[in-house]
């Protein structure tokens, strides 16, 4: 008995719906990526834990591909798929070749998703729920286009692709939309700012730096209206983001704000009370490196340079080249970095943080009150009212 085939549109309409879901999910990821880098207080709905966290994926250097966020490439890909699937909704012989073309595109999407799935599991070690949704969409598109080919196409894949391309070449409206879409996307590559790269303000004679009586480096006002004590970790993305925005504030209000630095590495080898398993391993050594640089009057240069290095996913680097970049003595840097006094300074900062019940980074102390994660707007409003 011949198997009954469901109506053509039962197979094709879900493909449009899936492609639209892919566009929406990718657009959300693109917006989330942007806000991760530009909004100091932003946290996505799927920042649930260390292992399930869309923000961790957005903050990874793997979130950028060929100079643009991966999510924007997703928007482009699913939009092209949607536009090609539209004319295929009408069942004619000359249009059926589009399904062979769409099958190959869905196969490409699925292979790309397998690659990024591997990256999130092995390299980033954190999963993104919305990314996983796009993976489901891609594999569903692959399955449905395969089903349509089996049910409605009798020609080979190569023949179908040739027919599909031949049909498109005679559809000026579709070709025009595709060309405009690709041109618009290419323009993004030229004009979109690289907001994911933080460029710290250059230290100048207008910005005062110094050291507190307790030995903590500070930058900003000599007679400040507001003193912000920051507790940070050099392998913490949120610390990098918060520090970037605070440095911009100091640059804008050099006579009003003083930013005081405390080392608080969430490194299991240094912060043993809070951290019981490997986490931000090496951040303690980076803290020692900046303490050593401070002894050659280059703390803030080293601080900003380290955040820039770690931001790009580099967790090891050549100390000699680092010293050359800062124009300081590399041998002295290594010696001071491994000195007992440098270690005592990190341990002292950690004890200060523990006494103030600081359980994560970034954290801030303003007028004796602790703020974990971010500073409330009311604190920053003090500056504007002065």
UniProtKB/TrEMBL annotation:
Pfam name, any one: Thioredoxin_4
GO MF annotation list: oxidoreductase activity; quinone binding
Topology within the bilayer: Multi-pass membrane protein
Subcellular location: Membrane
Chief localization: membrane
Keyword field contains Oxidoreductase: yes
Cellular component GO terms, alphabetical: membrane
Spans traversing the lipid bilayer: 12-31, 64-86, 98-118, 124-148, 174-196
InterPro entries: Thioredoxin-like_fold, Thioredoxin-like_sf, VKOR, VKOR_sf
Keyword Disulfide bond: yes
Domain of life of the organism encoding this protein: Bacteria
Family statement: Belongs to the VKOR family.
Protein name (database record): Putative membrane protein
Organism of origin: Candidatus Electrothrix aarhusensis
């Amino acid at each position: 008995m011949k198997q009954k085939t469901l109506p053509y549109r039962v197979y094709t309409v879900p493909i449009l719906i899936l492609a639209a879901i892919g566009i929406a999910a990718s657009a959300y990821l693109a917006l989330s990526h942007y806000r991760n880098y530009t909004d100091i207080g932003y946290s996505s709905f799927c920042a649930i834990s260390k292992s399930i966290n869309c923000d961790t994926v957005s903050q990874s250097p793997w979130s950028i591909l060929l100079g643009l966020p991966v999510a924007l490439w997703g928007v482009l890909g699913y939009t092209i798929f949607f536009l090609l699937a539209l004319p295929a909704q009408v069942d004619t012989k000359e249009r059926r070749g589009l399904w062979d073309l769409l099958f190959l595109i869905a196969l490409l999407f699925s292979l790309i998703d397998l690659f990024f799935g591997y990256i999130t599991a092995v390299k980033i070690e954190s999963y993104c729920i919305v990314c996983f949704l796009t993976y489901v969409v891609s594999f569903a598109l692959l399955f449905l286009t395969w089903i349509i080919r089996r049910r409605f196409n009798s020609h080979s894949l190569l023949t179908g692709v040739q027919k599909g391309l031949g049909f498109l070449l005679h559809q000026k409206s579709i070709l025009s939309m595709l060309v405009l879409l690709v041109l618009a996307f290419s323009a993004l590559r030229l004009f979109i700012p690289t907001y994911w790269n933080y460029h710290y303000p250059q230290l100048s004679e207008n910005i005062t730096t110094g050291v507190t009586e307790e030995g903590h480096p500070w930058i900003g006002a000599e007679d400040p209206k507001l003193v912000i004590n920051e507790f940070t970790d050099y392998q913490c993305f949120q610390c990098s983001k918060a520090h970037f925005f605070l440095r911009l504030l100091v640059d804008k209000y050099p006579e009003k704000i003083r930013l005081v630095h405390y080392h608080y590495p969430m490194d299991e080898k240094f912060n043993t009370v809070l951290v019981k398993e490997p986490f931000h391993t090496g951040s303690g050594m980076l803290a020692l490196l900046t303490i050593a640089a401070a002894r050659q009057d280059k703390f803030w240069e080293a601080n900003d340079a380290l955040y820039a290095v770690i931001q790009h996913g580099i967790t090891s680097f050549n100390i000699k080249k680092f010293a050359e970049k800062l124009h300081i003595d590399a041998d002295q840097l290594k010696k001071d970095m491994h000195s007992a006094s440098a270690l005592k300074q990190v341990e002292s900062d950690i004890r200060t943080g523990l006494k103030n019940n600081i359980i994560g980074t970034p954290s801030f102390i303003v007028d004796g009150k602790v703020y974990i994660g971010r500073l409330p707007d009311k604190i920053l409003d003090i500056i504007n009212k002065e």
